[in-house]
Amino acid sequence: LDQRLLRIIRDASRQRAAVGTPVQQVGDFYRAASDLQRLDALGLRPIEATLKAIEGAQLDDPAELARMSARLQLGFVASPIANVDVGADFRNSQVNTLAIGPGAQALNRDEYLQPESEALRRLYLGHMMKVFRTLGDAPRQAWDHASTVLAMETELARAQMTAEQGRDPKFMDNHLSLDEAQAMVPALDLRALLAALGMPPATTLIAPDVGGLKGVQAVWGRRSLEDRRTLLRWHVLSSQAAALGQPWRGLDQAFDMQRNGLTQAAPLDVEIERLMGMALPHPLSRQYVQRHFTE
């Protein structure tokens, strides 16, 4: 599959297709992501506007926090606050239903909580400190910011469902009215969130991870404004590091290699394919279907 996708991506990069077509989107993404010299020259400019927006946002206001969550979900694949998706209803697969869940995190639940993952958490903490230093943090400040992120993410992870529960449709089949869901997370204005995502107000939705949703309230409802900004800055940087220039791309590669016990980084083409799968899943999927499912 990976080799087939890489062929599609490389073929698209050699074409000058009409604007807005899947071929143009895939080809432009590949050419931009391959131009490492330009990425190095750009520095943080690709995410500068979002970082400034985080600094200026009143994140203790539920509606503004919701709009920021929507901005991050739409612009960076996922939000660390909460995410809304559309999928088949657990009770009727012919019906699509809105689902809301907790925010995205860098590690999985067990990696935050299990004693055997202590070495990984230390590695992650050190990685965060290096990244915060690139923003101008002094060593102590970088430690404080990294520790804040790890503490917040650990608390969020502790509230979330286990992997076993995530495989149980009955556990996740939690239909709620919008008002019932809102009562769980008063720190986040759900109507403002749906509006910012371009979705109509829903009368009902599914909350597959009710505990995780309550965890969103526990963390985002009581943490300071500065702590909230620290976590959001980290999310933007960490989610985009692989697509930025140096030193961020190199720091991300080094962490990934150490985490996975690798001796060398993945080839650039493979990394671009991974990034494209997250950022442009629909154009890439359409190209795959057109090429390999002709009937």
Question: Describe it for me?
Answer:
The chain has 295 residues and is mainly alpha-helical. The chain has 16 helices and 4 strands. It has helices spanning 2-13, 22-34, 36-42, 45-56, 62-76, 109-113, 118-134, 139-159, 169-172, 178-184, 190-196, 210-220, 225-240, 248-260, 268-279, 281-292; strands at 82-88, 96-102, 175-177, 204-206. It has a two-stranded antiparallel sheet. A two-stranded antiparallel sheet has the order 3-4. Helix 2 (22-34) crosses helix 15 (268-279), helix 4 runs antiparallel to helix 13 and helix 8 (139-159) crosses helix 13. It is globular. It starts with a helix and ends with a helix.
Number of helices: 16
Give me the side-by-side strand order of the main sheet: 1-2
Helix content: 55-70%
Structural class: mainly alpha
3D shape: globular
**Could you tell me the strand content as a percent range?**
5-15%
- Got a strand count? 4
Low-confidence stretches: none
Described by strand count, sense and barrel closure, the largest sheet is:
2 strands, antiparallel
Mean pLDDT: 94
